[in-house]
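Hey team,

Filing this mostly as a record. A colleague (T.K.) asked me to run one chain through the structure pipeline before their review meeting, and I want the input and output archived in the tracker in case anyone asks later how it was produced. No errors, nothing strange. Just documentation.

Input sequence:
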Amino acid sequence: MPKVLAAVTLPINPPSSSPVLTIPQIWAGLLIKCKEPQHFVAAMSDCRVTSETADQIVRVITAREDSMMGPAGSEMRERIELTKPTQADFYMDNGTHISNIVSVGPEGTEELYMTFTFDIVAPEGTDTEDEHAKIVKAGLATVKHTIEIIRGLAKEGKL
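Output structure:
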């Protein structure tokens, strides 16, 4: 099966961001994303956590629409490895691996970045160049939306 690889990065606290998010707030937001992904990822409609430890979450996610997870309504098991406070690795049963990474820039802890990496197992016959462009576009939108949701949770005092 062909694979499609991509990575996208956005700043977490660009100028005029309010509130400025901290690493603990971002980590708390990523943990919420792991347990309630349907609020962060447009392609997911539901999630059921089946087990949880300090460094791992196992969940069953439901596809909202036809996507890399399968046809709309299909379920897929995911194992999430947590490396506090910087990384969540999502391993799908179909071999796909996605990472959500928080990193610090040269200016220190207020210069934070969020990177999502994608190692997608694609169906045979997939135009991998076309699929790469789609993943980059969707990935950037998802990173931006994730940061916005976490910032909103911070404003509401929910982190």
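Quick notes for T.K.: Strands lie at 3-11, 44-53, 56-63, 75-83, 87-92, 97-105, 108-121. The first strand starts at residue 3 and ends at 11.
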